[in-house]
Backbone:
């Protein structure tokens, strides 16, 4: 940004009582558009002021790398649990099929015994 444009921004901010913005702008050494881009990112994520403070505290204390590691670890855990769930479902479905097959083998026998018993009762 040229010196003239910068001076216009500062004059505008001063007229609007935005002294903090000018101070932050100077301290960060970023262009105004970079500040606006960061703001838009936070806004698009639905983050309010408390959320932004939490994120910045995490950055300040170098916790982001820790959180990234934890997130990757948990993703792996989820994949493993999902695999175990599918394997368990397959096992249980096989067992159900086996029990149904055994049960179906006895159904005709039970029905036949029931008819014989019914005939004996009638006579």
Residues:
């Amino acid at each position: 940004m040229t010196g003239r444009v910068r001076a216009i921004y500062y004059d505008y901010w001063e007229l609007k009582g935005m002294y903090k913005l000018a101070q932050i702008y100077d301290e960060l050494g970023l262009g105004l558009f970079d500040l606006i881009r960061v703001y838009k990112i936070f806004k698009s994520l639905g983050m309010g002021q408390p959320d932004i403070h939490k994120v910045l505290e995490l950055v300040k204390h170098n916790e982001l790398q820790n959180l990234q590691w934890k997130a990757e670890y948990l993703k792996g855990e989820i994949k493993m649990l999902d695999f175990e769930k599918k394997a368990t479902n397959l096992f249980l479905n096989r067992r159900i099929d086996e029990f149904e097959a055994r049960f179906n083998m006895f159904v005709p026998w039970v029905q036949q015994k029931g008819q014989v018993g019914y005939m004996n009762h009638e006579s």
Q: What stands out?
A: Residues 24 and 30 are 9 Å apart (CA to CA). The radius of gyration is 36 Å. The chain has five helices and no strands. The mean pLDDT is 82.
